[in-house]
Amino acid sequence: MVIEAPATRAQSLAATIERTIVEQKLQAGDPIGTIESWRASSGFARASVSEALRLLVDRGVVEIRPGRGGGVFVARTGPVVRLRHTLISVHGEATTLADAIAIRESLEPLLVADAARSRTAAQVRRLRAQLARLDRALGEHDAFVRAVWALHEEIAAITPNEMLRAIYLTMMQVIGEHADRAVSDAERPDQAEAYRAHRLAVHRELVYAIDAGDLERASRAVIAHAEEAGA
Length: 231
Description:
Blueprint: H1 6-23, H2 35-42, H3 46-58, E1 62-65, E2 71-74, E3 80-83, E4 86-90, H4 94-118, H5 121-136, H6 141-156, H7 162-178, E5 179-184, H8 189-212, H9 215-227
Antiparallel strand pairs: 1-2, 3-4, 4-5
Helix pairs in contact: 1-3, 2-3, 4-7, 4-8, 4-9, 5-6, 5-8, 6-7, 8-9
């Protein structure tokens, strides 16, 4: 029998609480139980529940109010970066993440053009492998967004321009370090799924243009990507 460490239990419960907020579409200030109710429903010790809630407080996801009428509530002030159909919860300054995304997007045309000119067969295989990962992640928004970021890192790895690659990958590192979780802001699950399918098609065309070495097609793909940017 495998016994989970307390830290693992806390992380697991934190993920469950965060998923509950998303799935129930709870808003800032909405109640989401108490320490005792989460202890009872999870079966975890009070210490594990308290640690899970501490993790969520640190991320700006929940706040805890003491006294009569207190409990656990969806945070009112948690920093969020809004992209098209995507909300990214942030630890640290939300402006830092937003600025890093803006810089990343401004470099995309240069990177994609370089990739279309310089790609090798091995590099194209890695891009196609990332597309397959993107396809597998269609059912879960956070995993899908992170797969998109990984695909763009693979595109950046192709350019022979070391300075360009270094700046771009630094921005991707900032994004990865500041982003806690990405969720869809669509009103219905089918809308979120349709949007992810559309984004998959946009990124598939981006990879196919690079594979073909077609600079004009690659330019059109970058424009389509920028127009519908959400990850």
